[in-house]
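Incident log, entry 3
Record: Acyl-CoA dehydrogenase (381 residues)
Problem: checksum mismatch between cached and fresh output.
Input:
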Amino acid sequence: MNFELTEEQSMIRKLMRDFAEGEVAPGADERDRTKTFPKEVFDKMADLNLMGLPFPEKYGGGGADTISFAIVVEELSRVCGSVGITYSAHVSLGCAPFYLFGTEEQKEKYLVPLCQGETLGAFGLTEPNAGSDAGGTRTNAIREGDGWLLNGSKCFITNAGYADYLALTAVTGKKVDGFPEITAFIVPTDAQGFQIVDNYVKMGLHSSNTTELILENVRIPSDHVLGKIGEGFKQFLITLDGGRIGIGAMAVGIAQGAYEAALQYAKERVQFGQAISKFQVIQHKLADMAMNIELARNMVFKAAWLKDQGRKFTKEASMAKLYASEMAMKVCDQAVQIHGGYGYIHDYKVERFFRDAKLTEIGEGTSEIQRMVIAREIGCS
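Fresh output:
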């Protein structure tokens, strides 16, 4: 068992640490205040050939592995959760369905521009009445001539405001068992009747793009089906397994950033004549934070490694996402506590990390859903 990063993975970590510190961190607080989307950051990442990192070079990707993807998400999230989730969603939710289920023609037409950073990737699954119960999808698609007519809505969709097209699910009929037949479709965002509404007021991740999608008689041709008719729900569950690795890495990154800020503050803050890092109660908090971050990182890397080996990783991805997200909330809570009153102030960053971390317990399946997935995978049902 080798825990050493490869030379390529180490190079990517160094590149992303430098990029995050030099290009992402300086404007993170101001973007959070003004809710400004960091488009220039992703333009620069496209120039570095990072937008399609884990996909084959033939599609414009970087030919790297899933561990490298997790490293990039972690390093970005360490300084800005909004940039981290934007990149994670682009790769694991936006690009992956085209790579996993698209025809060669669809990959050339849709995956290549995504990998080259010409547009951002988005993924339309969640609906107002179908969150954790994604099988309760109400958006529907009806055959019309040689194409399809789509009606419905999606909510909490990351990146859609900066996407030229996205994959989304719609009901196309009923199966023999009475359950809805769900199919995935490729929908251009400039299609007539397709509306993107960007007016959510969020707790955190202020500079990420989170939107509602409204489809009113949106017509698409028959070749815009992604994968097989009736297998959209299964395809998106497979996609979510990979997405959970991304959210796990994001949680690790946010926690790492909060921990580093707390450690630095503890060394500088003097009370009762000495730095508070000298007090055992603070030392134990920091020791627990460091330990739990390391455990979560190893879990994320294991799930990523299994995926790269072509082995089943559903259980490990859910475990990594669940543990890392709940760990991140605890670490950020303690980081605020170590800062005392200053931890409640925006300028000290840990309050931003705290707000941003909460989404990791919700996105790509809530903590409750992760426990259901794990229970199923260990044979409880």
